[in-house]
User: Fold this.
Amino acid sequence: MKLLLTGGCGFIGSAVVRNLLRHTDHVVVNVDKMTYAASEDALEDGISHDRHILVKADIADAVAMRQVFEIHDPDAVMHLAAESHVDRSIDGPADFVQTNVVGTFILLEAARRHYGGLSGQRRDSFRFHHVSTDEVFGALEHGDPPFTETTPYDPRSPYSATKAASDHLVRAWSHTYKLPTIVSNTCNNYGPWQFPEKLIPLVTLNALEGKELPVYGDGSNMRDWLFVEDHAEALIRVVEQGKPGETYAIGGRQPRSNLQVVKAICAHLDLRAPDPAGPRERLIRFVTDRPGHDFRYEIDPTRSEAALAWKAPHDFETGLARTIDWYLDNRAWWEALRAARYAGQRLGSAPESKGKAA
Assistant:
């Protein structure tokens, strides 16, 4: 199929592009606004691949989106483009409303117009796959069952509220206009090419440079972790096999507290790149918790695992080791970001590692 993928130069989107080009015969039309967190380098060999087309455009630009559909005539849409950093949403929510809500509306309207012109098998097989987050479900406490596809929505931050709004728009377009939509919700992603504002790369790079490792509160906040390449594989199965109107909760079954994550990073770095000054746990600093910090997120992926015949191959320790090794082997990429593109910004703010898409 020809797949229109938004946010394909972001963290998760680029992993999907790489997977599609290496393991399928699909053509990828990659629409990306190229914000601060986007990277053409993350496409790796996809940059010059003959089945990859990069369109630098904003999903909130109605004219541009209409042209993309008219020119490229896609068979399906995978919508990952979003503002995704919780701390940034607290400081400046307007960009999140514009991209996550208005942008999704514009894309849905362009897709609806395109779908109306399809017929036969192409119309029957068309899908609009919207990629979302577990944060729309709110927060869990100790002992609460994990989120599932039927958990009620209870967003707590500007980021999660705008993602919840976009989820509702997608389902409304399905109900009202019969656009064949699918929604997937996922947990915290991590892996190669993640922008250095997110928890795992931030702690890794700070630790390598002997800088403080800021941890919100007492570090007890819990997150479920999913290696990004595993998520990419699941997303492709959703767009290929998913049923219109369905929701798929995609998780890694790897819950960890933030403090456990930070200590695991320190331990792996101490093995791979020992610091003469001593074990890196000495760098951990507990900082004032952020406003409205949700305590726990965790997904129960049982239904999606059965429906997609998929289960995350990586446990957290294996995925984390691969991730840290990648950052050790790709210093040129992140050193340039920290020196030129991210200098003076909030690298010390102990952000979450949601990483949903740029």
Q: What stands out?
A: The chain is about 40% helix and 15% strand. Residues 134 and 169 are 17 Å apart (CA to CA). The chain has a mean pLDDT of 94. The longest helix spans residues 94-116.
